[in-house]
Amino acid sequence: RPLKVAIVGATGSVGQELLKLLSTRKFPIRELILIASPSSVGQVVQWNNQKIIIQALNEAVFNNVDVVFMSAGSGISFRWTPIAVASGAIVIDNSSAFRLDPTVPLVVPEVNPQAIAYHQGILANPNCTTILLTLVLGPLQSRGEINKIVLSTYQSASGAGTLAMQELQSLSRNFLDGTELSSHVLPYSLAFNLFLHNSSMQSNGYCEEEMKMVNETRKILSSSSLSVSANCVRVPILRAHSEAVNITFNNPMSLDEVRAILTSSTGIEIIEDFDGNRFPMPTDVNGRDSIAVGRLRKGLNDDNNLELWLCGDQIRKGAALNAIQIAELLLSRDLRK
Ligand code: 2RA
């Protein structure tokens, strides 16, 4: 039956992608309500030949709502997700608020769809970098246990929001014009520059973004002993994240075997031309559902080692598409609660 759906954070880059995908994927909606910050309340949004007026966030807004896509940051999620669940809604939360809560499934539908069975009203969308990584690790784990992951990320400005994407463009223009370069949204100028991810620094010397990859990857792959080490970097790219990944299995694997697995895995395309030195680039994945994987090669010093490179659209599969795929999975199982 068509559903009443709410998007909290409707004006953000992920909220906008949710609107686009809910329409193109023909998600069964009988009513869509859009909620955003006070500065956006009253704005009219055109969606599926309807004019929808943006509403303020309050308790009543969740009445009779079946599914809430929460995409307004952890603070809003912490406070309003329990209220939405108490109103009878199922919440798919794009923030980090509940991702490590043992009662909350953390889901990449292609990898651990079975996890949705234990939800109690909240399901968490993993961090964008984790979605892209586990989409590849999931199928590979089926061929043999993965002991260790070492990776570096090359994260686009979109991960810091729409204003950060705009700032990258304006600072880059300023750079070329030789004018003033101070950043306001990002911690430093990203014009022809890069910097280590500026999420809060933990006492162990890793930042919050890196620890998200450690903890979320372990939860999604159900492998608490998996060793993960991440180095997260913000780079001057608009909306696609890239990752250089080094995987150690507990047994040797052949590249043909790995290629065959990834080629047949949903949501992954292989872009790989060693002769032409052509591998995935952010421009290959912008606005696309699939992520691109390439440059598969065995480690130089360890037969159990595999190295690869991936690129994926941070706003789409890294956030909005994965959230909708979780909702579609719930629908296929009749929104069990
Ligand atoms: C980032 N993954 O890219 C985080 C939040 N989307 O900064």
TrEMBL record:
InterPro entries: Asp_semialdehyde_DH, Asp_semialdehyde_DH_beta, NAD(P)-bd_dom_sf, Semialdehyde_DH_NAD-bd, Semialdhyde_DH_dimer_dom. GO terms for biological process: diaminopimelate biosynthetic process; isoleucine biosynthetic process; lysine biosynthetic process via diaminopimelate; methionine biosynthetic process; threonine biosynthetic process. It catalyses: L-aspartate 4-semialdehyde + phosphate + NADP(+) = 4-phospho-L-aspartate + NADPH + H(+). It comes from the Eukaryota. Its EC number is 1.2.1.11. The active site is at residues 128, 241. Pfam families: Semialdhyde_dh (PF01118), Semialdhyde_dhC (PF02774). Residues 4-119 form the Semialdehyde dehydrogenase NAD-binding domain. Homodimer. This is aspartate-semialdehyde dehydrogenase.
